């Protein structure tokens, strides 16, 4: 315990032998500490039994083996468990505990060169994990803001200490000294004898500790004998607290718990009454040592906070707390000491007989104003050295304020008194003011106490709509610097207008809920005002402007509009919020099939606080002046369309006139915008080729004009384009000569004609067939003249087919009636 001085604080525990009682079976496996912890817990055997040490064996497999190979144990190099385990049954701490015999382990050895510079001291292996105190170095024992200095531990590092040194420690509140005696089976603190004798001469209690190296039962008992021998040699009695410092990594071989118990039993059987085991808390957390055997009253925790204070004692539920490693004394220069506060009285009551009943702690309850009793005294009872905790109870009509001493202490041989001071509670009274924000979104409730302000622990405002009292919300107030209590109440929590009730409740310091005020407030119903603006009788549109005249708090506005009596053209418009807080939606006749006449629309609003108000309106009239028109004309073959627009009464010249053309098939995949050119007097015209759209059937044409950067729709039209069709006519020119003419007459050719092929034959096996190209005679006439001389001079019936290919590569074939020659 020579001081922890690295970068993290470390918890170190001391556990007495009286707590080592259960869960001790540990496997000697090469395994992780987490696995060890699991194995320790699952392998425990604790029963009632005798005080003698007996032996037993337990088979790991209950099935009968079929061969010797099934029951063989692991070889010397195998770290797994053997098939049969052996146990020692020991009586320890009033219970019978089975300890697994150690089959093997790390061979026992201690360094042969141990000396005052290579020795281990309590905490020496733990220092790298300690926390360096920030800004606190060399704590003087005279600093009474620090915790008590009950116990100091010393070793050869402190060297020679005189009786006067120890008397100086005692005069500064030190009650006990813990002296390192031995290490392993060879090292002895050369100053131990004088440190023990001088501490005793100064009237201090003395305990002793041993730095352990044991790895099995025999070495544990050998070290215990070495330790005990030196203790007796130095005149330490059987009541001396004997500490096993078990932090050496060599001890961590999977049997640290068993071997620590063997060490303790050796000392106890040798006559010593109290054995304490010391180690890092991490050894217990990981299962190297079995933490489940511990009682917090028997744990000694070392934890070095940045600024240890008597007003902020840590680890009070443990037996003791080592709170610093650098305590200094004004008359002992150049030396620093580990220091502990001994909650359980391990060393500060070293001579006490265990389990002796202590004197009671009397608890008084008084009125702090006149010291009069407000409740009968109570008493706490316990054993010497045990901790007591006084918890101030709530007393009706009073609030706890303070005590005349520490509420946590230790039972002693003398009666102690703790006085708890209470203040009589005055009934809270006051008024509550309620205000509603201008946007009707937030209500502010403010309670101003007039009496009993000091007795108010908290304030709440239950609030509900008078229309629906089933929904009551409670709002916690916050105390302000001026003593008032304020809460913000979102109106959105209720989502409705109307009258509200609000009450005020104060919770007193004793936890009593007291009604202190009541009130009300009103959330106004939104007054939705609308007007129709920007009526456009040319394009058939108008704007609807919506406002809340009560508060500028509209969150959303939706407007359904329709002109058809059956609402077949119903369209919902989401209005857009304007800079002034109003909302605007533009209703367009083009969204309603360009219907004119009366338009109906309703208004649906929602405020920021979630209040909904719906308004039915009278609607408005929509006109679209018939000054604009358009038409689409197909050519005879329907391969070309002529687009016409009449924009004669606009009153201005459009910057552009266009038609959007597309076939109905597959949507607007063939959409084409065609610009119309002015022909004068408000007339516009253009042509378009059906070939560019590549489809027949229904077509759409929409007429638009542009003005001042805005595009206006004028008219929506449809037209149809037929598929390619034609007729065939065969005419005899000279029967004697055997000549004739085939004429192809186009009816419709939307994609034009690329060429026409005519196969002709008379033989059934087509042995006299010829393929000929027809020639174009006019826009819709193709002809081909033929003769029997082209067909081997054959007479009879001729078959004639026609294959027409358009400019898209599509084939349209037909069979003619034929001709007789």
Automatic annotation (TrEMBL):
Biased composition (Polar residues): 44-77
SUPFAM superfamilies: (Trans)glycosidases
Enzyme class: hydrolase
Pfam families: GBS_Bsp-like, Glyco_hydro_25, MucBP
Protein name as it appears in the record: Lysozyme
InterPro entries: GBS_Bsp-like, GH, Glyco_hydro_25, Glyco_hydro_25_AS, Glyco_hydro_fam25_subgr, MucBP_dom
Keywords of this entry: Glycosidase, Hydrolase, Repeat, Signal
Organism of derivation: Vagococcus entomophilus
UniProt-listed PROSITE patterns: GLYCOSYL_HYDROL_F25_1, GLYCOSYL_HYDROL_F25_2
């Amino acid at each position: 315990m020579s001081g922890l001085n690295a970068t993290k604080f470390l918890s170190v525990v001391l556990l007495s032998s009286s707590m080592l009682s259960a869960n001790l079976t540990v496997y000697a496996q090469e395994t992780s500490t987490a696995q060890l912890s699991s194995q320790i817990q699952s392998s425990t055997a604790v029963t009632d039994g005798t005080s003698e040490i007996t032996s037993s064996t337990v088979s790991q497999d209950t099935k009968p083996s079929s061969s010797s190979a099934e029951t063989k144990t692991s070889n010397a190099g195998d770290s797994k468990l053997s098939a049969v385990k052996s146990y020692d049954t020991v009586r320890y701490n009033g219970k019978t505990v089975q300890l697994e015999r150690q089959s093997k382990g790390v061979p026992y050895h201690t360094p042969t060169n141990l000396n005052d510079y290579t020795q281990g001291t309590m905490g020496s292996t733990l220092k790298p994990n300690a926390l360096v105190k920030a800004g606190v170095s060399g704590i003087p024992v005279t600093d009474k803001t620090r915790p008590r200095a009950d116990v100091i531990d010393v070793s050869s590092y402190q060297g020679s200490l005189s009786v006067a040194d120890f008397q100086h420690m005692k005069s500064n509140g030190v009650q006990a000294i813990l002296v390192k005696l031995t290490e392993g089976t060879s090292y002895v603190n050369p100053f131990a004898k004088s440190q023990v004798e001088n501490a005793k001469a100064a009237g201090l209690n003395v305990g002793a500790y041993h730095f352990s190296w044991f790895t099995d039962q025999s070495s544990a008992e050998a070290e215990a004998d070495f330790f005990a021998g030196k203790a007796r040699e130095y005149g330490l009695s059987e009541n001396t607290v004997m500490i096993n410092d078990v932090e050496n990594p060599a001890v961590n071989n999977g049997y640290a718990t068993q071997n620590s118990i063997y060490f303790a039993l050796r000392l106890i059987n040798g006559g010593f009454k109290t054995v304490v085991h010391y180690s890092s808390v991490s050894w217990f957390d990981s299962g190297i040592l079995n933490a489940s055997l511990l009682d917090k009253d028997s744990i000694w925790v070392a934890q070095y906070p940045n600024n240890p204070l008597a007003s902020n004692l840590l680890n009070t539920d443990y037996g003791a707390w080592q709170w610093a490693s650098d305590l200094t004394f004004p008359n002992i220069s150049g030396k620093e000491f580990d220091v502990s506060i001994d909650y359980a009285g391990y060393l500060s009551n070293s001579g006490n007989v265990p389990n002796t009943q202590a004197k009671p702690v009397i608890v008084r309850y008084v009125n702090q104003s006149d010291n009069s009793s407000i409740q009968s005294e109570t008493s706490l009872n316990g054993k010497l050295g045990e901790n007591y905790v006084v918890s101030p109870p709530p007393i009706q009509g009073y609030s706890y304020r303070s005590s005349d001493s520490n509420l946590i202490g230790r039972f002693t041989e003398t009666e102690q008194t703790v006085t708890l001071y209470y203040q009589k509670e005055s009934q809270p009274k006051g008024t509550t003011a309620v205000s509603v924000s201008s946007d009707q979104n937030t209500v502010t409730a403010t309670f101003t106490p007039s009496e009993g302000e000091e007795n108010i622990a908290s304030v709440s405002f239950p609030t509900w709509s008078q229309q629906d009292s089933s929904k009551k919300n409670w709002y916690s107030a916050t105390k302000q610097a001026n003593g008032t209590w304020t809460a913000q109440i979102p109106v959105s929590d209720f989502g409705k207008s109307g009258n509200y009730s609000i009450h005020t409740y104060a919770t007193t310091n004793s936890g009593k809920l007291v009604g202190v005020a009541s009130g009300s407030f009103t959330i106004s119903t939104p007054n939705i005002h609308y007007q129709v603006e920007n009526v456009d009788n040319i394009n058939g549109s108008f704007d609807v402007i919506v406002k809340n005249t009560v508060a500028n708090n509209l969150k959303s506005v939706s407007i359904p509009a329709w002109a058809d009596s059956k609402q077949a053209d119903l369209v919902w418009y989401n209005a857009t919020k304007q800079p002034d807080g109003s909302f605007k939606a533009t209703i367009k006749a083009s969204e309603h099939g360009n219907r004119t006449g009366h338009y109906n629309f309703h208004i649906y609003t929602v405020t920021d606080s979630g209040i909904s108000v719906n308004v039915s309106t009278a609607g408005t009239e929509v006109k679209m002046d018939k000054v604009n028109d358009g038409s689409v004309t197909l050519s005879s073959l329907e391969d070309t369309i002529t687009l016409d627009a009449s924009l004669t009464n606009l009153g201005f010249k459009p910057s552009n006139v266009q038609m959007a053309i597309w076939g109905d098939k597959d949507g607007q995949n063939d959409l084409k915008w065609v610009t119309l050119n002015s022909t004068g007097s408000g007339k516009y015209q253009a042509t378009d080729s059906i070939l560019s759209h590549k489809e027949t059937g229904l077509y759409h044409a929409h007429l638009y004009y542009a003005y001042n950067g805005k595009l206006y729709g004028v008219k929506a039209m449809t037209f149809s384009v037929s598929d390619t069709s034609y007729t065939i006519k065969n005419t005899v020119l000279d029967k004697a000569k055997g000549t004739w003419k085939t004429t192809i007459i186009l009816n419709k050719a939307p994609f034009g004609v690329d060429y026409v092929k005519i196969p002709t034959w008379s033989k059934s096996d087509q042995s006299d067939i010829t393929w000929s190209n027809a020639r174009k005679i006019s826009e819709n006439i193709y002809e081909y003249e033929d003769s029997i001389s082209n067909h081997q001079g054959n007479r009879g019936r001729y078959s004639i087919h026609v294959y027409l290919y358009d400019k898209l590569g599509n084939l349209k074939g037909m069979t003619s009636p034929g001709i007789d020659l």
